[in-house]
Design a protein that fits this description.
Elements: E1 5-10, E2 13-18, H1 19-29, E3 38-41, E4 47-50, E5 59-60, H2 93-114, H3 120-132, H4 141-149, H5 155-168, H6 173-182, H7 190-200, H8 202-212, H9 218-227, H10 231-234, H11 237-250, H12 256-266, H13 273-283, H14 289-302, H15 310-316, H16 322-335, H17 338-355
Antiparallel strand pairs: 1-2, 3-4, 3-5
Length: 356
């Protein structure tokens, strides 16, 4: 084939033309704006054309003496891939951990500020979130203590602040003291959460509960008497030596609620029957029916060792209050001695007579 023939391609048209006719063909098939053609040779010696005079490596077509083996207009050129940006360096585990800690510290500070927000819902949500962080939010303890102690705060704010404290610093003496102090508050406030917290840690806080039995507040004493009957305390022989005398003394408290809770709690100390039998027997004759019923219930827990209380329980079978009669019946059944059975049978015969 003639060395001065070159193949020209335009769309689907392929022609072999003499080199001299090539420029005329380009002029005829290329738009006017693109007729000034610039070119360059690629690595394979092929010439590529462009109508952009500033394109790197291109020169005016008149300076290229060698005819091209293939003409490629700029319109047909394959787009060049955009340069790939270098990847950011991957952070190490230590760097990611440091960043997470910094973010957490910032979050804690913002939540502490949230405890002072004028909107109550924001305050208790901030307290809740701090509690969810656990021990990591220990720096928030002073702010949460202040929020829980502030009686001007809504009950929800105080409750959530206290619950957060029990999650963040359950062993903090300030948290324990706050729980003890709140026992004297009305139901539905922080006292309910405080009771649950103290029950879970009753063995550890037993000394503080014993002090609470001496409180001037009736509700605080009643709550302490109730908590001292929970199993973690009742099963500790050393603590029992301190608790039982305190509860026995509370059977004479001026508050009905304290006396009732003390009687119920003494039922948990079955091994202390020698100390509790006489006081509980006397309590069966208390002027309050709730105390009488609780005392009979505690005597039932003693079983046969409560036999000396049979006369008092027999009298309680005829108590005006139905609940007291029921508890006395259960106690005599639990004692289960011939004397106890005889008292129950006599009572049943009396009832039959009354029915007739």
């Amino acid at each position: 084939m003639d060395a001065h023939l070159a193949k020209a391609r335009h769309g689907s048209l392929n022609l072999w033309l003499p080199s001299a006719a090539l420029a005329a063909l380009i002029a005829a098939l290329t738009p006017a704006a693109a007729q000034q053609v610039y070119m360059r040779r690629d690595a394979d010696g092929k010439i590529q054309f462009s109508n952009a005079p500033t394109a790197p490596g291109y020169q005016n077509s008149e300076t290229v003496s060698q005819p091209p083996s293939r003409i490629v207009t700029e319109k047909e050129e394959q787009p060049q891939s955009a340069p790939v940006a270098p990847r950011a360096p991957v952070a190490s585990d230590e760097e990611r951990l440091a960043a997470a800690k910094a973010q957490q510290k910032q979050d804690i500070q913002e939540l502490i500020e949230g405890l002072q927000d004028p909107i109550p819902r924001t305050r208790w949500m901030a307290a809740d979130q701090l509690g969810n962080m656990g021990g990591a939010a220990r720096e928030a303890v002073p702010a949460l203590l202040a929020a829980a102690k502030n009686v001007e705060n809504e009950d929800g704010v105080r409750n959530w602040s206290f619950v957060a404290l029990t999650k963040i610093a359950p062993d903090d003496p300030s948290v324990v003291q706050l729980a003890i102090r709140s026992l004297g508050e009305k139901e539905g406030t922080m006292s309910s959460n405080a009771i649950n917290f103290l029950i879970s840690r009753s063995r550890q806080v037993a000394p503080a509960l014993l002090l609470a039995l001496k409180s001037e507040d009736d509700q605080a004493r009643a709550s302490a008497a109730q908590l001292l009957g929970k199993q973690p305390v009742a099963t500790d022989a050393d603590l029992a030596k301190l608790v039982v005398p305190a509860l026995v003394e509370s059977l004479n408290d001026r508050s009905v609620l304290v006396r009732r809770n003390a009687a119920r709690s003494l039922a948990a100390y079955k091994d202390a029957g020698e100390q509790t039998l006489a006081p509980l027997t006397a309590a069966v004759a208390d002027r309050d029916n709730y105390v009488r019923g609780a005392a009979a219930q505690a005597l039932a827990a003693l079983g046969p060792q409560a036999a000396p209380a049979i006369p008092a329980l027999s009298k309680a079978l005829r108590d005006p209050d139905h609940e007291v009669r029921m508890e006395a019946t259960k106690a005599l059944q639990m004692i289960d001695t011939p004397q106890a059975q005889a008292e129950l049978e006599r009572y049943m015969r009396e009832r039959e007579v009354v029915k007739k």
